[in-house]
Amino acid sequence: MAADAAEEIRGTAHGTAPVPLSVLDLVTVGAGRTATDALRTSVDIARLAENRGFHRYWVAEHHSMPGVASSSPAVILAHLAAHTDRIRLGSGGVMLPNHAPLVIAEQFGTLEAMAPGRVDLGLGRAPGTDGATAAALRRTDRLNEGADDFPQQLAELIRFLDDDFPDGHPYRRIHAVPGPVQATSPGGVQSAHRPPVWLLGSSGFSARLAGTLGLPFAFAHHFSAQNTVPALDLYRESFRPSAVLDAPYALIGVSALATDDEKEARRQVLAAALNMVRLRTGRPGLVPTPEEAEAYDFSPMEEEFVASWNSNVIHGTPDEVRSGLDDLHKRTGADELMLTANAHGGDVRLRSYELIADAYGLPTPA
Questions:
Q1: Distance between alpha carbon 173 and the CA centroid of its chain, in Å?
Q2: What is the b/e burial string over 179-216, where b = at least 16 CB atoms within 10 angstroms of the residue's CB?
Q3: Which of 20, 132, 296, 359 could form a disulfide with 11 if both were Cys (CB 3.0 to 4.6 A apart)?
Q4: Helix runs in the chain, H state only
Q5: Given CA atoms 102, 35, 132, 208 in this order, what sign does their dihedral have?
Q6: DSSP code of residue 307
Q7: Sign (positive/negative) of CA torsion 186, 187, 191, 194?
Q8: What digits encode the pLDDT tens for the residues 262-295?
Q9: What is the average pLDDT across 201-207?
Q10: Per the omega criterion (within 30 degrees of 0), is the bond before 116 cis?
């Protein structure tokens, strides 16, 4: 790993933001919109994020969800790399048990060749979908095996990324290309640099593993808020300095939506919450409009879920969102805040990031 790995991991806070701000994109598709529309919005948000000083832009792997068009992070990241110049791009994350480690090493080696020095490889051990879809992805119904084998799969992937299987290993003569082997081949001039590996989690397992290995850690606060502080504490307690980091570095994913009007923010997050209600009850679909959500007859149980879900969504006017993010940072001590804006319309999501950037006085394009 290159000596500047820590510099790539640790971002710089801009304006009055307490820590670096980044973007997590689920490439959400609203009712009446297409995946093409959603992907165009992703390009627009990535460009805005780059111009306003956000540190990185990650795409999350999900499957069999009509309202989430991010089933192929590597493909989307290649598209975003072609439309940006500086912002870090990565997976938040690729679900390792769904893929052969060699395939991931090849995909992210290719991305690194496309966007040298600005690619992150975030890895998760959940399937990113329901059990039946996970079985279809993996061609097996032994789903627990993938999660249980995560440390071994991770070790294998890192070996492929570094091209350093020991002599006698069955994969010793197998190389992930593009990758370091090209720099050591006769006439090789390619950089041996490879993307930094992050571990993602929503509980303590990956927190402890990331700490033990001295890797950066990303926690899914946006859907597991009750576990955030315990997981970050466990990560920091478990941390052992490595060639990658000499001290812990943890970011948290945060649902945050800013609008010009507080009432509009409530309308938008209600629609996103209805989408989650349908997903959790086996009825996944496109993200509904605010009008559909307002007309929906929520059951008492659904109302309870919506209230709980939205209590962890920081939303409102730009000042309210800034205050909520500042408070969350104080409570968690996170080294970076990665914001995800869930709303029906791409224009609302784009506007939210712009308003948050303005609220923190982030740089504006020349």
A1: 33
A2: bbbbeeeeeeebeebbbbbbbbbbbebbbbbbbebbbb
A3: 20
A4: 5-9, 35-52, 73-81, 101-114, 131-138, 143-148, 150-162, 181-184, 204-213, 228-238, 262-280, 290-295, 300-310, 318-332, 346-359
A5: positive
A6: H
A7: negative
A8: 999 999 999 999 999 999 999 999 999 999 999 9
A9: 93
A10: no
Mean pLDDT of 193-208: 94
Q: Which residue has the tokens 């490879």?
A: 194
Pairwise CA distance, residues 216 & 122, whole Å? 9
pLDDT for the residue numbered 127? 65
Q: Which of 7-21, 114-128, 132-146, 231-245 has the lowest average pLDDT?
A: 132-146
Residue 44 has φ and ψ, to the nearest 5°, of -60, -40
pLDDT higher than threshold 50 for residue 218:
yes
Structural tokens at position 137? 């992805």
Taking only the tens place, the pLDDT of each residue in 111-145 is 999 999 999 999 998 765 667 777 787 656 665 55
Cα–Cα distance between 41 and 22 in angstroms, integer?
Answer: 16
CB half-sphere exposure, 327, CA atoms < 13 A: 10
**Dist CA 15 CA 13 (whole Å):** 7
Question: Euclidean distance between the first and final Cα of the chain, in Å?
Answer: 35
Helix (H) or strand (E) holding 338: strand 336-340
Residue by residue, DSSP assigns 60-73 as ----S-TTB--S-H
Q: How far apart are CA 299 and CA 103, in angstroms?
A: 45
